[in-house]
Amino acid sequence: MSDLLTSEPEAAPPSPAIRRAKRRLPLLGRVGAVIVAFWLLMAVFGQAVAPYEVGKVVDMDVFTPITAAFPLGTDYLGRDMLSRILVGTRYTVGVALLATLLASGGGLLLGTCAAVWGGWIDAVISRLLDTLVSIPSKMFALVIVAAFGSAVPVLVAMAAFIYLPGAYRIARVLAVDLNAMDFVLVARARGEKTRYIVREELLPNMTGPVLADFGLRFVFIVLLLSGLSFLGFGIQPPQADWGSLVRENIGGLPEGAPAVLMPALAIATLTIGVNLLIDNLGGLRRRTGRTE
Amino acid sequence: MARLISARLAFALVSLLLISAVVFGVTALLPGDAAQELLGQAATPEAVKSLRASLGLDQPGWLRYLHWLGGLLSGDPGRSLANNVPVASLIGSRLPNSLLLAAVTAGVSVPIALTIGITAAMWRGSVYDRLVSLLTLSLVSVPEFLVATAAVLVFAVHLHWLSALSYVNTIDGIGQFLRVFAMPVLTLCCVIVAQMVRMTRAAVIDQLRAPYIEIAVLKGASAIRVVWSHALPNAIGPIANAVALSLSYLLGGVIIVETIFNYPGVAKLMIDGVAGRDMPVVQACAMMFCAGYLLLVLVADLLAIVSNPRLRHR
Asked: B188, B248 in Cβ contact below 8 A?
């Protein structure tokens, strides 16, 4: 069964339609794309670009305001905030991206299986995941952290687990609709195998909505994980994602130090950027869908 | 309709039961030994064994689950591991604070959100509408603690209007009340209002696209009349649904807000429980939040059923 979905839409090269769509992205969508691309690059090269060594105390003062030497000020120990945020990108973006891949990939796999096989398999998976949805995400995360601690693998698995049901619902509805379409019936009548139908008929037609859902799910996971970090239950020191950076510098709030606000603003730019990108892809997808 | 409602009620109860199994299973069965953890590494095996027996940890898991569930239903979810106080009295002393916070927030945010949502739908496509959409999208997609820190920066640090911390022990007079509640309520409202405006706007716009609205416009009814007497009565169901669903976001927001403002509510209790791995407290708080969440979703469902004549008269 593992080779059923050999080509996952996330990994597949963009189809010509999507590439055309990207070129005609509206202004806000382009702004979103630039922001997302910037943070993705920083997740990889953040350490190399950072002006100071990340754990090094470089300023005698703590909570310095914005200066030429420290563009985002310094933190509660006098470390450079810009460097800490750039290095923190890999945790915020990387961990969330991994969890989103697992959630969306798992949801896609289960959803397609449920749609293609139907019957009791579909019923069992759907009921089970429906129960998971009725636990508020932050509550579930807190229960998991209380029980298993907050190592990075636990955080990834937890976030993936919490957001898998939503991805499953979307994938299942899409696949069930497509499965009833004439061209799939024709393929079945032709005697094609299930594997072929999933790979050639279902998945390519699900790419757009599944990608949009992937982006939304990424935003949710970033917010959940940084919320957890802010409470002190996320990424643990000495590593720090953006949520932990806000937490450890909260003492600078009465002084109005940039160290508190900047990491929170970094999260805001990332999530708003992804939202802008998805929102503006939506209209284009519909337009290109109609012409095909 | 009675059958539909009882089906929803039964579904909610079954969900709650399954959730209790999940919460108990995750916190009590899978991980290591609470007795060992309480006594630390240096404890003698005999001491651990006797504590295990007194905590009931030597019984099989399903029995412990039933025992715990029975205690939960009869209002006794066990004792806190941290200070051996009954969890019920811990929650009892915090719950009024949290409910008060939620009530004040709901009372402030619902009228504001409905006004903004409906007017944005009335003038959809205008500059005002686009501004509202952009602002609410931004507020929905930023973390709650950004809103909270920004609010503290503006109102407490720069303007000195309010104090950054809140303690509800000393409330005398309306001025005091405002000073204590303003920051947490303001933060929660930002999050809830944004959520509610988006859903209300979508619900009203959905109605405004219907054919009967086109007829009303064609017969010459004014824009205000079209919305007030034609669209709104039909949109009440979806709007009530939206309000109840948005209020369920309170549960997530309140966790961050109670922590950042040091507000002595149930969410703060749970956070402290998680930090101290105080499982009875975590379990009880988690069940309470899940029950509250399910209740709000249930109310949203029921409002949608009751306000829809096609469902009501079935």
From this structure: no
Closest CA to B205 of B127, B124, B129: B124
Asked if B276 contacts B38 with a C-beta cutoff of 8 angstroms, the reply is no
Tokens of B72: 């939960």
Question: Could A267 and B143 be called an inter-chain contact, meaning their C-beta atoms sit closer than 8 Å?
Answer: yes
Q: What is the distance between the alpha carbons of residues A237 and A101, in angstroms, rounded to a whole number? A: 25
Quick one: pLDDT band at residue A5, thresholds 50, 70, 90? very low
Distance CA A252, CA A102 (A): 37
Q: What are the residue ranges of helices labelled H in A56-151?
A: 81-89, 96-117, 119-133, 137-148
Alpha-carbon distance A91 to A243, whole Å?
A: 10
CB B270 within 8 A of CB B282: yes
Q: Are A125 and A157 in contact (CB under 8 A)?
A: no
- B18 CB near a chain A CB, below 8 Å? yes
Q: Does B66 touch chain A (CB under 8 A)?
A: no
Q: Is B162 helix (H, G, I), strand (E, B) or coil?
A: coil
Q: Contact, B310 vs B36, CB < 8 A?
A: no
Q: Which two structure tokens, joined as six digits, stand for A279?
A: 């929102």
Average pLDDT over residues B155-179: 64
At residue B76, the 3 state secondary structure works out as coil
CB count in 10 Å sphere of residue A128:
13
| Exposed / middle / buried, residue B314 (Cβ in 10 Å: 0-12, 13-18, 19+) | exposed
3-state helix, strand, coil in chain A (%, to 5): 75, 0, 25
Q: Name, of A270-284, B156-170, B223-237, the range with top average pLDDT.
A: B223-237
- Closest CA in chain A for residue B251: A136
- pLDDT tens digit sequence for B224-246: 888 888 888 888 888 888 888 88
Does the domain at residues A43-56+70-80+89-283 carry the CATH identifier 1.10.3720.10?
yes
CB contact under 8 A, B146 and A267: yes
Q: Which of B10-24, B40-54, B77-91 has the lowest mean pLDDT?
A: B40-54
> Is B145's Cβ below 8 Å from some Cβ in A?
yes
Please compute Rg for chain B using Cα positions: 24
Q: Which residues pair with A80 in a beta bridge?
A: A74
Q: In angstroms, what separates the C-alpha of B225 from chain A's closest C-alpha?
A: 32
Show Cβ contacts of residue A277 under 8 Å, excluding neighbours closer than 6 positions: A29, A32, A33, A36, A215
Q: What is the DSSP string of B178-246?
A: HHHHHHHHHHHHHHHHHHHHHHHHHHHHHHHTSHHHHHHHHTT--HHHIIIIIIHHHHHHHHHHHHHHH
Q: What is the pLDDT of residues A62-71, one digit of tens each?
A: 777 777 777 7
Position with higher pLDDT, A69 vs B25: B25
